[in-house]
Amino acid sequence: MGEVVSASVTRHVGAAFQGFSTSLFINDDWKVSHKLTVNLGLRYDYQQQPVECWNGMSNIDLLPQIPGTEFYGRTVYAGVDGQPRPLRNSDGKDFGPRLGTAYDIFGGGRTVFRAGFANGLNQSGSFGVITSAADARIIQFGLKLIF
C-alpha cells in the first residue's frame, strides 16, 4: 500500500442538496464637476456551502493515522462522528468593490468617456464554488458618442 495522492467529494445517487445565497449592493454617484462623475459601490456575496439533506456526502481526511499502521487518511461522512454537515466552512468575507467614472470630454453631453472596475466572485452551477476574488476582476472602458 502507498500514500493517498488524491481525494474527492462524492455525490451519491439520489442526493438532494440545499443551501442559499444572497447578495447586497450599495452604490452612490458624485458629480465632481460639470464634466466628471464618479460612482463608488460595494457588493457583498454570501453563499452557504451546500448541505445534503440525508448527510449523503463523504470526503477523505488525510490527517488521522490509521491505527496499527504507518499510513494516514480515512473516509469521513457529513454529519457523522462530529463532522459538519457541509464538510467545509462557508466564507462570509466576500466583498467586491466597484469604481466607475464618466467624463464628458467636451462638456456638451455628446462625447463621454466611461471607465469602470469591479472586483467580484466567480460562481458556477447551482451550488457553485466561490473562488478567490482575484479570479473575477472586471475592468471596462468605453467611449460613448452621440451624433
Plain-language structure description:
The structure is a single chain. The protein is mainly β and 147 residues long. Helix content is 0%, strand content 50%. The chain has no helices and ten strands. The chain has a five-stranded antiparallel beta sheet with strand order 3-4-8-9-10, with no helix packed on it. A three-stranded antiparallel beta sheet has the order 1-6-7, with no helix packed on it.
Biggest sheet statistics: 5 strands, antiparallel
Computed structural class: mainly beta
Give a count of the beta strands, DSSP E runs of length 2 or more.
10
**Low-confidence stretches at least 5 residues in length (pLDDT < 50)?**
124-135
The order of strands across the largest sheet is 3-4-8-9-10
Question: Judging from the principal axes of the Cα atoms, what is the shape?
Answer: elongated
Strand content: over 45%
| Tally of contiguous helical segments | 0
| Quaternary assembly | single chain
Q: Give the overall average pLDDT.
A: 79
C-alpha-based Rg, rounded: 24 Å
Helix content: under 10%
